Each structure stands twice: as C-alpha cells, then as structure tokens.
Amino acid sequence: MQHINKTVFINYVSCPTLGWMTKRDMLPKPTGLSNEFLYLEWKNVRKMSWQLFPDAVNVKKTINNMDSLSFKKLIQDSDIETICDAQFTGDGYSTRVDILQRLKLEDNSWHLFGVKSGSRYKAKYIRDIAFSVMVLTKSGINVHKTTILYLSNDYRLGMDASKLFTKIDCTEKVELKMQEFLALSNKAFKDIESKNMPEPCIKTNCKNCPTFDICIGKGIKNHIFDLPRLSKLATEKLIALGVHTIDKIPDDFEFTQMQTVAKNCVLTNTPYVSDNLKIALANIEQPFYYLDFESVTTVMPLYPEIAPHTQLLTQFSLDKADSFGNILDHYEYIADQTKDCRREIAEKLIKYLGESGSIITYANAESIAILKLADLFSDLSEKLDKIAERIVDLELIIRKNYYDINFHGRTSIKKVLPVLISELSYANLKIDKGGDASAAFAFMAMGLYDEKKVEETKRNLLKYCAQDTLAMVHIHQFLINIANNNTNNDTTIVEENYK
Ligand code: SF4
Asked: How many C-beta atoms surround the C-beta of residue 169 within 10 A?
C-alpha cells in the first residue's frame, strides 16, 4: 500500500472526494514543457538551499543502500547535525523533508526548514510544513522549531546561496495547523483508503477543480460555473438554493449585466451582440496594428541584475493592416537567449509601431509590459507611453459586447477562437501554450538546448506568437461582420505579407 503523501492529504482537506481521487491517480497528469521546467526550478532551488548546510547528510543520495534500521541510526547519531531530502513515514503517511537540523536541547528535538521557491510569504506554506511536521511526529521525530526559507528579491545571478533565501520563523502557526491535521488524520486515513469514494458535495472550489468534468460537472450542460465572473458569494447563494444549471436560476436572482446576458443566451440558445459593439469597433483607428508578446519568468534569474521571478519580454509578433483583414506587413522578433533584450524590444516596437493607428491586443498584458519598459528606459519613456495610449483591448470589447454560451463564461483567446473561427487552431503547433513558450525560452537561456534545438525552438516560438496575432485579425474581422449584420461571417484574411 502506498503511503498518503502531502498532495493527497491537502486535497482531502479541501474536499474528501478529491483526496480519494488523488490517491488513485485520477487527476489529469501535468504535462508539457512548463511542467518540466517547474520541476527543474524546484530542484535547483532545493539544491541551493542545501548549500546553506554544507555538512548536511543528503539522505536521498544514500537511501538506496539504507534499510530502515540504518536510517534510524542516522537519526540517532548525535554527531550528525543536519540531514536533507529525507523521507519519513508514520501511520500510513509519508513526507519528504527539505532540511532537518538537530537542536542542542535535552529533548533530542529538531529544527525543520521548509524550502519554497516563491518570493513572498504565502499562507499555504504553513499548511505544507504542518503536514511534514505531522508525519515527523507520527514517526517519532520531535520538531521543536520550524522555519520557512523563501526567495529574497535582493538575490542576483552569481551570488551565493546565503543571499538567495529569506528566513521566517513559523513555529507557532505550524504547530496550530499541525494539531488540526493530527486530529483529522485518522478519519482522513480511513476515508482515503476506503473502497468507496466519499460522496461529492458541490462547493465553490469545484469550479476550478481538475476533476470537475468527471465529478460534480459530469454530463451537466450550462453549469452555473459557466457564468462569467460569478462571485464567490453569488455562487454560494445559488448552491444554497440547490441551483446547478443556468436555466434554473430564479428570475429575481441578482446578477451583473453580463451574467444576465449569459443566462439569456442559454435560454434562447443565441449569441448576444450588444448595440454598442459597432461604436466600440468604430473607435479603432487605421492602420490596425495587432500586437502580441511572449515573456519568460524564472525563479532563478537568467541574467545579471534581474531579481528572482522577474518577467522578461522575449518576443513579439506584429501584424499591420490598412483595412479590415488586409495584412500589409508582418513583423516578428525573438530575443538572443544569452542576454536580456528588453531594450532592443522597446526600440523595435517604437520603430515598427509608427505614430498613428490603433494597437490591438488581447487582454492587457501588452499594455502593462510597455509601461514597464517605459519605466525601465527613461530616454524612451515618452514614445513608449504614447504607444501604450494607442492600445485597444479586443478582449474587453468582447467581454462587454459579445457572448456565446460556448465561451463557458471565459473570454481568453484560447476559449474564444475555436468558437468564433473554428478553422483557425493551435492544434498543429509544436508549442501551443504561453506557459510552454516561456519554458522553452528558459531552457534555451539556461544552455540546455544544442544549436539545432535552439533554432527549431525559435521557429516554433515565432509560429506560436504569430498565431496569436493572426487570431486577433480574424476575431476583429468577425466582430466587424457581426456589428454590420453580415451574417455570413466571412473572415477571409489577405495574408500576402504573412511569412
Ligand atoms: S469537483 Fe468538487 S466535489 Fe468533485 S472532487 Fe472536485 S472539489 Fe470535490
């Protein structure tokens, strides 16, 4: 029998059904480059933390040759002060602890260090460490003190490990949470190991649960979670009323305008087009520039003078059209992965974006990034600020003026595109998600790809980013057709200059 690990237990605490499913590997497996990269970063941060304890015995390295008796001896050997990466089990639970240091106290107690790769303290850290302390307690280890090590914003590339971490004593908070977990642990063990799945019970958490489609949401069309931006309070009220689908929501239930729109779309099975759509689109000035950025964010800085978790622009795609759907030029840029290229990106944007015409983006990430570039390069700030003023957010126009029940309450480009322009898809791209694009760039920047792989990756990244701008051109054209009551929705795009 496999022991119950932290993920299973923490999921059980949030929902017993979820804990039971997690134990049986029923959750979708995380895949893709972004997942691989996350794991690599986590490993790197842990390794750096062990450098703070140079005399520590790394148990993971030696455990293969170690039986449980030898491991016990290791713990009892008072000459060994610190151990890292050690696995403990007790009462059917298991945990792998980052660093455990012997305290010089008479009660033979220990100091547990939990390593986290965030650069801000988060409440969930307490929960994670409390689970480890619970298992340590069950396995006979007395933990007297607990400390969280998370990343310092002052760390820069090349500094040693002592500058990477901020320490925070969390003994009291962990002890409280640990007692709570300990009191629950016997019942949790029984429920999780039971042959019968705990009965699912709908709650607000279900909305973002990875098993929603095979659990509470199975076979349900137009679930209340498909309403756009439904608040936690409104969700709780609907659940308390026993309402699970949009069509059953009482007429007098208080909604935002777009939630009412979504409900009417379900009842009439017709998309919604606002009277203001034409006006919103008329404010977009020619020539049209469709702009999309990609960026990389890493825990460990890739370049000098960059703090952990800094988001760095790495590429852009830009389509210029003189009229609806008539692309005149396509520009694209991808950074040299060996250096920080933000200045070059800022200069190229100024050059390509000219001084007139609307800059169409999807959501506000590009606007925020351009304002950050303006802050960073004061000599370019005037021009960059003017560029930011010309930005029109196509997602905002959709969010206020158009709704289709197949959006399922969301308006991201990945949700909207297959509904509006089904023939344009990301399916045939080697890189088809923002997270994977970021990870691919990080792998190149870390020198983990050879020259051939770098070339291939850059080609795939350029294709991915170009797909986003092409999608925007088509969505813009679709909206124009709808606003002009052109029901055939011809979104043919002239792409002569599209390389
Ligand atoms: S969908 Fe809801 S009830 Fe089902 S496992 Fe997830 S959180 Fe639990």
From this structure: 12
- The number of the ligand 1 atom at minimal distance from the alpha carbon of 215 is 4
CB contact burial 298-322 (16+ within 10 A = b; e otherwise): bbbbbbeebebbbebbbbbbbbbbe
Which token pair is 96? 């792998």
b/e map 170-203, b = 16+ CB within 10 Å:
bbebbbebbeebeeebeebbebbeeeeebebebe
Dist CA 427 CA 64 (whole Å): 43
Q: What is the pLDDT of residue 498?
A: 43
**Those residues with Cβ within 8 angstroms of residue 307's Cβ, 6 or more apart along the chain or in another chain:** 119, 153, 154, 155, 156, 301
Query: Could you tell me which of 491, 317, 315, 316 has the C-alpha nearest to residue 417?
Result: 491
Residue nearest ligand 1's atom 4 by CA: 215
**Whose Cα sits closest to atom 2 in ligand 1?**
206
What's the rounded Cα separation, in Å, for the pair 174 and 148? 10
Tokens at 60, concatenated: 């993971």
Is residue 11 in contact with ligand 1, taking CB distance under 6 Å?
no
Those residues whose C-beta lies under 8 Å from the C-beta of residue 427, and which sit 6 or more positions away, are none
**Measuring from atom 5 of ligand 1, which residue has the nearest CA?**
18
Q: How far is the CA of 3 from the centre of ligand 1 (A)?
A: 22
Residues 6 or more apart whose CB falls under 8 angstroms from that of 199 comprise: 17
Q: What is the pLDDT of residue 398?
A: 97
pLDDT for res 78? 77
Strands, E assignment, 137-265: 143-151, 165-169
pLDDT score recorded for residue 63: 55
Asked if the peptide bond before residue 250 counts as cis, ω within 30 degrees of 0, the response is no
Q: What three-state secondary structure class fits 403?
A: strand
CATH T-level topology, domain 6-193:
Lambda Exonuclease; Chain A (3.90.320)
Q: What are the tokens at 229?
A: 């931006």
Give yes or no for a contact between 294 and 445, defined as CB atoms under 8 angstroms apart. Answer: no
pTM above 0.85, yes or no: yes
> According to CATH, what is the number of the domain 277-483?
3.30.420.10
> Domain segments of the chain: what residues?
6-193, 220-270, 277-483
211 lines ligand 1 (CB under 6 A): yes
Task: Provide the strand spans (E) within 362-496.
Answer: 391-393, 402-403
Cβ(362)–Cβ(468) under 8 Å? yes
Positions in the chain short of pLDDT 70: 62-69, 486-499
